[in-house]
Amino acid sequence: MEKKFLIIAGPCVLEDFDTAFYIAQVLKDLVQKYDFDYVFKASFDKANRTSLFSYRGPGLEKGLSWLEEIKGKAKVKITTDVHETWQVKPVSEVVDIIQIPAFLCRQTDLVVTASQTGKTINIKKGQFMSPWDMKYVLQKAQAFNPQEVLLTERGYSFGYRNLVVDFRSIPIMKNFGVRVIFDATHSVQLPGAGEGKSGGEREFVPYLIRAAVAVGADGIFMEVHPEPDKALCDGPNSLPLAEVENILKQIKDLRSVVEKYGIS
Predict the structure, then answer these.
(1) Which one, of 212, 216, 218, 214, lies nearest residue 186 by Cα?
(2) Range with the lowest mean pLDDT among 151-155, 223-227, 258-262?
(3) Rounded distance, CA 182 to CA 167, Å?
(4) How far is residue 249 from each of residues 100, 109, 167, 185, measured CA to CA in Å?
(5) pLDDT tier, 1 (very low <50, low <70, confident <90, very high otherwise)
(6) How is the chain split into domains, by residue range?
(7) Which of the chain's ends, N or C, has fewer CB atoms near its CB within 10 Å?
(8) Domain 6-260 in this protein, CATH class
(9) Alpha-carbon separation of residue 91 from 94, 114, 146, 248 (angstroms)
(10) At what angle do helices 85-92 and 60-74 cross, to 10 degrees?
């Protein structure tokens, strides 16, 4: 049976339990309204911050306890990222999808350890990787029989402090026989452009989402916050929670066209 279009969304990082739980509840209801699958995303630790003084999150133990409680109370699926192999086992006991960050997609031990859990693995394509070379990353993961491997496009380094999206990546990686997700908010990030933190151009997120859906993406990843300008991480490229429903409407309408013409 064909799987539903997937929405992976939530705050960049866990700031406090109440905010995360509220976002999960609102997004779950919105996504179900448009008959998509939903997975709540938030990081317990952002290990690759620009500055030593940037907020990283509550840490593994507290973060996983929050995620487990959100999963149970909001009745949502959960994903979070791992940065080191020792984190994989405790994370796998809570989440439905283990996320491999873009910077770490070539780390063989991390990909293999995550895949050995039998969970679904979402591997983000590195900002330095061509879509063709993700075939070898995929082979590493599939060799250990995870439930499913997703690949996520999130932009490619374009000079200094800038990213560009080559939408050929989506059909190229889909030809490997896996579902491909488009990370709309990290794709408008301006790495390191915020004087010790990353900047971003969130006004372009809806445009890139429409393009990704049109070329056959199987899902959208987006970081969402009630007040992005007050977010402790990735605020400049995060979507306001109030704008999500309009974007879901657009995805729904575009998906009908994509399905009509058999784009996949």
Answers:
(1) 212
(2) 258-262
(3) 9
(4) 29, 40, 22, 18
(5) low
(6) 6-260
(7) N
(8) alpha beta
(9) 6, 9, 15, 29
(10) 30
